[in-house]
Amino acid sequence: MGNTDMPRNPHVLVVEDEPDLANLYGAWLDDDYSVETVYDGADGLEAIDESVDVVLLDRRMPGLSGDTVLDTIRERSLDCRVAMVTAVEPDFDIIEMGFDDYLVKPVSSDDLTSVVDQLLLRSTYDDQLQEYFALAAKKALLDAQKTEAERSASQEYDQLTDELAVVRTKVDDTMEALFDQDVYHRLCQDISRNAT
């Protein structure tokens, strides 16, 4: 009925080994998204295909861990965003992980809905912006969780900061090139006029 504007609701896959928690997440998201829940990593890998837009993935599961599932998703080059939703506190090892966002349990309905909304919005941007947001999320997470002394002593953190600066320059250059094009220039002028 309400699907005439969109061909389908975004597809969210919840991979969580605690069925009650997975079902709760599904209930929170069910009004706005097509939600599928599975209760272990192997079933998660079986369920992931090109139709999945966002994966909410627990890190610590028996059998296939969330880290292994994440690595497999990235190896398959599936075009989906992944948020780790886990009780595992972040450490510097997250820098090398291919997730797009990271939530530490417990999470609220608003937290979960917000991260799914943000990941869907990010997926509309180009690869440079997606890379920038993933790196910025990791830096913000480490900034919040680690002391300045810990960050200063970490070579991985220095590399992350440098990589973020390089990607930011690329994003800025791309945006500048887009705004230099006449169509985008007119669009910005129209937006400015409509805002006043």
Automatic annotation (TrEMBL):
Q: Where is the Response regulatory domain?
A: 11-120
Q: Which Pfam families match?
A: HalX, Response_reg
Q: Which GO terms describe its biological process?
A: phosphorelay signal transduction system
Please name the InterPro entries in this protein's record. Bact_response_regulator, CheY-like_superfamily, HalX_domain, Sig_transdc_resp-reg_receiver
* Keywords from the named record: Phosphoprotein
Give the residue range of the signal peptide: none
In terms of SMART domains, this protein maps to: REC
Residues recorded as bearing 4-aspartylphosphate in the entry: D58
Q: Which domain of life is it from?
A: Archaea
Can the keyword Phosphoprotein be found in this entry's annotation? yes
Protein's name according to its UniProt entry: Response regulator receiver protein
